Structure formats: C-alpha cells, structure tokens
Amino acid sequence: MAEKMNNNSEIKGIRLSGKREIKSVNYADDVTLTLRDAHSVNLAIDTVDRFQMASGLKLNKQKTQGLRTKNSFPEILLPDIKWHHENFNLLGTKIGKINLNQIWQEIDGKIKSVINEIDSTYATLDAKEVLIKARLLPVSNYAAQTYPAPTEKIKKINERIVRYAVGKYEHADINTLQLPKLDGGLNFPNFEIYADIIYIRSILKYCQARVQNEPLNVHTTYIEYQIGHAIADVLEVVRLNNIPHTETRSPYYETIMQIINKYNLKRNDLIERKIKKTYERIIQTKKLKAISDLGKIWERTHLKILPSYLRTFNYKCAWNLLPFCNETGNYTPASKNSCPFCKVGPDAAYHVFFKCPQTNKQWKQTIKDAEELLQINLQNENVESLCQLMYNNDRHPNKDQLLTTLITATKHQIWKTRLKCVIDNQAFSLNKLRKDVNKACNSRITTIRRDHPNIMTNE
Ligand SMILES: [Zn+2]
C-alpha cells in the first residue's frame, strides 16, 4: 500500500532534505500520512480503500484523525474524518502547535501523584534511588525526548524529586549523592540533566550517523533539514551533502545549543551516542566541584584500600544518612526506638556507635587488636575521638589507613548487627558481634596484605 502511494506521482508528500519525499510513516498497524494538499489526501485514501478490498483489512474511520497545517483550500475537499487545526496526539505525542508549559505542568502533576503514592512506604536511600528510577523517570521519559523542558518547570520537578529523596535526611549533600556508586555516591538521578540529555538524544544519533557516514533515517533527516548544518559547523561534524536547508531554523535549535553549551559538550561527547555515558560525563564535572568543596573528608571516607561497600558505609556515616529510629526515622517501626544492644539508650547513631556500654566492650577489643597489629598506643583515645581520627589523622600515613580500616570494619559490623536485631528480631549477642568483627577485620587485613603489601610494611 505504501509502495503504491510512493509510486503515484500525483500523491504529493512532504519533501525533506531535497532527496526523499515522505508520504507515509508506518508503525505496524498505525499509518501516518504526511501529504501536501487535499487532492493528495483523497488519492491516498482511495489507495487505502482499494487495498482494503484486496486484503480484507479495514481502516477504522472513526479512529482516523488529521491535522491541517494550511488553510489554502476549503475543508469540504478533505475526506470526512476528524480534522484538527492546532495539534493532535500521535502515538501519545502532541504534534502541531503545542504549549510546552502546559505539557510539563501535566508531567509535574503526574510526578507529584507518584511521589505521594510511594512516599507512604518505608524506604531507605538506596530503595529511593531505585524507586526514583523505576517510577518517576519513566513518567517524563516519553515527553522529555520530544519536548524541551522549560527551565522553571524542570527546576520544580527536580526540587520535588530531591525533596522526596533526601527530605528526611537533612544532612544529605545532593551533589555527592548524585555521583555514581563507584565514585562514592549513591547514584541519585539529576532530573534536570536527565531530561536535557534525553531531549538531545536525536542530536547524538544525528552526529554519530554523520561521522560514521550512515544513512539518515526520517528523524535524523529532519534534524539535518532543520538544524543540522548549524550544528555541524559548531561541532565540526561532517556535512556530506548540500541539502537545501530551511530558512527558518527549528525553534528548538536554540534550546539544543543551550543544552550543548550548558554542559560544555564536545564533539566526542555527542558522537558517543550513548545517553548514559553523556549523563555520567556531566555528573563527573559536577563531582570535581562537589569533592573539592569537601577537602580531606572525602578522601578519608573513600580510602582507596577500602572495598566499595565500606566506602559507601563511611559516606553514609559522615553525612548521617544511616536510618536510625530516633534520627532519620520512617524506616523501622516506631515501636522499636531504644538501642537494640543495651535496651536503655536511644536508637541513634551517637549512642549505638559511641556511647552504648555493649558496643564499648567491642571497641576495647578492637583498640587492643589495633595496638598489637600496628604497634601504636591508643589507650588515651576514647571511642568517639578514635572514630573522629579517621577524618583528620595525619600521624603515620600507612598506619592511619590501617587503623581507619579496622575502625570502619568494626563500625560496619555494629551496624549490621543492629539491623539484624531491629529488622530480623534477632537477640543481641556480644560474643557473636566479637566473632563477626574479628572475621571482618582479619579478612580486610588479609586483602590489604595481598593487594597493598607496602602499606603493611612501611612506616
Ligand atoms: Zn545501647
């Protein structure tokens, strides 16, 4: 059917890029005709009618809609289907004259209602990270790749998501939370960057196709016709032909250039084509700023000899992100709000890690083990000052790293034991904690002996 239309020179389609004339765009059982005048539309419908008779398939005229973009002929000449003059929905995307603010207002409303729904469930920061990606980002995905997001609207949505993510964790630093896990963050999405990158996805594809000398599809042909030449000049992307170019550039050209400039995207970023890579590259530039603001704390909490789960743990400790009942709440049942070890003190980081008489017994053991292993004297340190040491310890670089490892491993086992008591209702046993800490510390030291032998021997 499409071939029949393409071969009929009386049916006039829309000419793109001077080479191809597009008369129809077909997705399985959904056909979109893109025609120039009433005569072409009538001939095309005739072709469809004849195809129906031959094949037994049937066009549902009730569901058929059209968009008129010119008024140079009376509507009576057009077939009897529903005609729109401003815009209409094509496969879920509004085509024609559209109101961006209104579209994004609707998306913001949907995001708000999903947040209301998911915010009523208990969720850790890690769970929220997954929920944001699984429930919130898809809400805007479809629209974001078609319509540029107005700055004010995107700011509002971003704030909404950030508030959902860290609202109860007032110490959280969103800039570092947005870093990839490998870089010590929690991989929280930055909605603004995300929406921008999704929007310029077709530009990434266009640049790639141009550089690889791949044939352009309808979408990339449209870009070439509308903005390709200008983009090609700015980004030094190859121009392969001298296609007649539209005199008035797409209104989105400015938006696209703004996005490219805003994130300082270079030619290579664009020809990589992958959204994820481009997103990560932008986040990396944010990382440098976020981390340089933090100075040594970042370096110490993300000590290179620590495995990534302990770095994440240190990160959460440093930013008070661990969900204790008496602090960040809304995670464990409200009835359980006393320390699961001594049953007297509060279930709060300061008590559980430093003040609890039960964990103090463990710390005495850890200090003794550390003194033996590192040949240092720690008797004058109390547990709290010892834990603080790891942020500003400058005595012996190697010994400090090992000490930090032992402290972190102990603290992490205390946290794991607390979770078992609070979440799984297990009874607390100091002996079990001792065994777990011992095992964790030994395993860390063995790994360091193997991977970083100079740290074990040097002073
Ligand atoms: Zn306690």
Automatic annotation (TrEMBL):
- The name on file for this protein is Reverse transcriptase domain-containing protein
| Lineage, highest ranks first | Eukaryota, Metazoa, Chordata, Tunicata, Ascidiacea
Q: Please, which domain of life does this record's source organism belong to? A: Eukaryota
Positions of the Reverse transcriptase domain: 1-95
- InterPro entries xref list: RT_dom
